[in-house]
C-alpha cells in the first residue's frame, strides 16, 4: 500500500517531469536510471563529436538510451530523432542489443508516429526498440527505495495538506471527474459472464443497472492507465480489494440487500471527503467512483467471481 510520503514524493517527481526539458530532463532521467540499474552509465556530449546518439547505457544488458525532452513534442521531429539517433548508435556501438527512446510526453502518451518508427526499425534490424514516456518513468521512480526517491526530488515537507488524497484511486477519480468521457464505447458488448456475475453476487435493481451502464465508460479508465504509471492499475485494484473485504465485514451477508448496500458503501468511501463539500463536484466524483468500480467489477477485484465461493 502507498503511504502519504510515497504519494508526496511521486507528486514532486511528476511536477519535475512536467517542467523538465532539454538537459534538465536528461539529468532527471539519468538520476532515475542510475538508481534503477547498478551499471547505468550516463553519457555527456564531447565537443563536435557529440554523443553518437547515446545519452546513457546499461553495459550488462546492452541497452542504450536516447533522451529527448522538448518544450513541445512535435510528432514528426520526435520520430525523425528516434530514427536518426538509432542509426548513430548502430554505427558506433556494435554491442547494441536494445534501444530505448525516452520522450517527455508529459503523460499525454507517446505519439503514434514515434511508435510506428520504432516498430519499423525493430522489424528491419531485429534490435528491440521501445519508447519510454513519463508514465513509465514514474513507474520506475515509484519502484525505487525511499532514500533514492527522496534524493531525486530533494526531499519532501513533513506534513501533507489535509486536502491531499494519497490513495492510488485518487488519481483516477480526479481525471474522470474533470474530463467528460461522453457516451463511452457504445459499440461495447458486455463480457459473457458479466450478467452471470451480477446474479451470482445477488445484485439486482439499482446497483445492477448502474454497473451495466457505467461499464460502457470503463474505456476512459483504461485510456488513463495507458499513459500513467503501469503499476497504478494494480495499486488501485489492491485498494479496492481491501475496500470490498471491509464492506463484507461491515455489512452482514444475511441482509437481503447486502450486495447493493456494499455497492453504495464502497462508492461513499471511494469519494474523497473534500469532494463532498460541493454538490456539483460530488456528482462528478460519484460517477467517477462508479466507473472505477465497474472497471474492477469486470476484472473480479470487487465482488466474487462465479464459482469461487
Overview of the structural elements:
There is one protein chain. The chain has 13 helices and 5 strands. With 309 residues, the protein is an alpha/beta fold. It has 2 domains: 4-153, Restriction Endonuclease (3-Layer(aba) Sandwich); 168-298, no CATH class. Helix 3 runs parallel beside helix 4 (112-125) and helix 9 (205-214) packs across helix 13 (279-298). The longest helix is centred in the last third of the chain and has 20 residues, at 279-298.
Summary?
This protein is α/β, with parallel strands linked by helices. The protein has helices at residues 4-19, 22-36, 75-92, 112-125, 134-142, 146-153, 168-178, 194-200, 205-214, 218-226, 232-250, 258-270, 279-298, and strands spanning 40-42, 56-58, 63-68, 98-103, 128-132.
Amino acid at each position: 500500500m502507498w503511504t502519504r510520503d510515497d504519494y508526496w514524493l511521486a507528486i514532486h517527481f511528476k511536477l519535475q517531469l512536467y517542467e523538465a526539458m532539454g538537459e534538465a530532463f536528461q539529468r532527471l532521467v539519468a538520476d532515475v536510471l542510475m538508481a534503477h540499474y547498478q551499471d547505468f552509465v550516463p553519457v555527456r556530449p564531447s565537443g563536435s563529436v557529440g554523443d553518437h546518439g547515446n545519452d546513457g547505457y546499461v553495459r550488462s544488458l546492452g541497452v542504450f538510451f536516447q533522451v529527448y525532452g522538448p518544450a513541445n513534442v512535435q510528432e514528426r521531429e520526435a520520430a525523425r530523432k528516434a530514427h536518426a539517433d538509432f542509426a548513430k548508435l548502430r554505427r558506433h556501438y556494435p554491442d547494441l542489443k536494445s534501444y530505448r527512446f525516452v520522450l517527455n510526453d508529459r503523460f499525454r502518451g507517446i505519439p503514434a508516429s514515434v511508435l510506428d518508427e520504432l516498430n519499423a526499425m525493430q522489424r528491419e534490424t531485429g534490435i528491440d526498440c521501445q519508447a519510454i514516456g513519463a508514465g513509465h518513468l514514474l513507474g520506475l521512480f515509484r519502484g525505487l527505495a525511499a532514500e533514492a526517491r527522496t534524493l531525486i526530488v530533494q526531499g519532501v515537507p513533513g506534513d501533507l495538506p489535509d486536502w491531499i488524497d494519497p490513495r492510488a484511486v485518487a488519481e483516477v477519480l480526479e481525471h474522470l471527474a474533470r474530463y467528460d468521457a461522453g457516451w463511452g464505447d457504445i459499440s461495447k458488448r458486455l463480457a459473457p459472464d458479466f450478467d452471470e456475475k451480477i446474479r451470482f453476487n445477488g445484485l439486482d435493481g439499482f446497483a445492477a443497472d448502474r454497473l451495466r451502464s457505467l461499464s460502457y465508460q470503463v474505456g476512459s479508465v483504461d485510456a488513463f492507465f495507458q499513459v500513467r504509471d503501469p503499476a497504478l492499475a494494480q495499486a488501485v485494484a489492491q485498494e479496492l480489494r481491501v475496500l470490498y473485504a471491509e464492506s463484507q465485514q461491515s455489512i452482514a451477508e444475511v441482509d437481503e440487500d447486502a450486495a447493493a448496500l456494499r455497492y453504495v458503501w464502497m462508492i461513499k468511501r471511494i469519494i474523497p471527503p473534500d469532494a463532498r463539500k460541493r454538490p456539483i463536484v460530488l456528482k462528478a466524483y460519484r460517477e467517477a467512483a462508479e466507473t472505477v468500480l465497474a472497471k474492477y467489477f469486470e476484472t473480479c477485484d470487487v465482488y466474487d467471481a462465479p464459482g469461487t465461493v
